[in-house]
Design a protein that fits this description.
Layout: H1 2-6, E1 13-15, H2 18-29, E2 37-39, H3 44-67
Parallel strand pairs: 1-2
């Protein structure tokens, strides 16, 4: 009931994740989407920039933090596939 009460004051929302966008499409098909939603996830600018720079940097940072190992002077190979890999 909380979101139904708030929906009168909401002009729209944006979603930046694949999971969130799929959920919004599901809600729209079920007639449960209470306000307009913009799919930012599929924009060329967001997907290309985030996948190229964001994922690359966050993966390296996550490995360094989790393993607590200095990477300087070492050879590291990270393999992947698809837009993110």
């Amino acid at each position: 009931r909380f979101w139904h009460d708030m929906s009168a004051n909401i002009q729209g929302v944006s979603e930046e994740t694949t999971t969130g966008v799929h959920r919004l499409y599901q809600m729209m098909e079920e007639g449960k989407l209470l306000f307009p939603a913009i799919n930012v996830n599929d924009s060329v600018t967001k997907s290309k920039f985030d996948n190229l720079y964001g994922c690359r940097e966050s993966l390296a940072d996550g490995l360094k933090r989790a393993l607590d190992v200095m990477v300087a002077g070492k050879t590291v190979v990270i393999c992947g596939y698809g837009d993110v890999g």
